[in-house]
Amino acid sequence: MCDDITENSVDVQTVKCVLVGDSQTGKTRLFERFINRPLSSIYIPTVFDVVSKEVEIGVGTKNKVNLNLWDSSGSHVYDSIRPISYPHTDCFIICYSVNDKSSFENVEKRWLPEILKYGDGPRVPYILVSTHFSQDDKSEIGNDKKEDKDHELLVAVEGERLRSEIQANAFYQCAVGPDIDVQYSDMILQKAVDLAYIKKLEEEKPPNPVWKFQSLNVVLMGDKGVGKSSLVQACFKDQLQIASNCNDNTISDENYHNFIMDGTEYFLRITEIHEVQPVNSLLEKFDQIHVLILCYAINDPFSFQSVAVDWHRNLNNSISKPLPILLIGNKTDLKEDSLVVIPSEDGEELMLEKKFAAFMECSAKSSENIAQILKTIVAIFGEDT
User: Fold this and answer.
1) 182-202 and 27-34 are packed helices; what angle lies between their axes, rounded to 10 degrees?
2) Mind listing the pLDDT tens digit for each residue in 4-45?
3) Reading across the β-sheet that carries 170-175, which strands appear in turn?
4) How many domains does the chain have?
5) Which of 245, 255, 285, 366 has the most CB within a 10 Å radius?
6) Rounded to two decimals, what is the model's pTM?
């Protein structure tokens, strides 16, 4: 999930930090502490969580930066989409748990290669963080105080050795349980921000290639067979997708994409809905929808009629306030070969009649007007805010 993001000021430098590591290593606990969010009492797997906040550079200074902080999932289920958060990162925070040896080993085997491959290369700094969930964890090692101290020393030595091997910029140990170590968590965040800022200053490119960040949630609707999935794949090109876990096959996919346009980094989530009937209940589960897309096939009059009547009526009964709607006529590559074709004028008339935000025709197969879809979504969002 992505939280709604506060826009950054153009007068302040923007830096981006991303937390990575195996599942259940305490990344989200650190993330929640970093942003002063109440700590979760139960473990909830994260897909993506992004927050923007203003922080100081160095302790006690008046210089500030806008921090875009990303929390990512460590699950292998999300291996295909997690790397889309890595470009433009200014500092990574790699976490492992002292109670999970595999998470320690995966720092070098899995996480470092991944951020080096999909991030901006070895010039991006990274911090190594060893986590434990409470002081009670040590009772699993032994009750003897000397044994506890020996264990702590061993943990520190192993962490420092790993930091040296992977050439991390810093190493910290931090409790992330109910008694989270506030002092060390704050030190970790401060170090990450400082390293990210230094990295920005050393870049040859302009200091603010990205001025702000915005999450963008889009819901794509239309009858089966109109080419919704093909449209998403054409928009995202080589970006891989992740199937959502929903009942009755009412949602086919949640698709994630990260792109920059006019100085803003957008994190786009497009959720596809197939059936007209479940829209009422499904839309209640989505928070902060920014743009709705209604899609029909230009060679299928029934799908056009369904958009004009069934889908539109269902939306009116499903949402408490009007949301901007983009009307898309897909499959323009079939115009010459189809016996029946919905004229462009009909789409324009429907847009005006229903007061939709925009109308466009495109082809997922030939890529006609595909690049314009993202631009139109961003433009509609900008007009609505």
Assistant:
1) 80
2) 434 444 457 888 999 999 998 888 888 888 877 655 555 555
3) 48-56, 64-72, 14-21, 91-97, 126-132, 170-175
4) 2
5) 255
6) 0.66
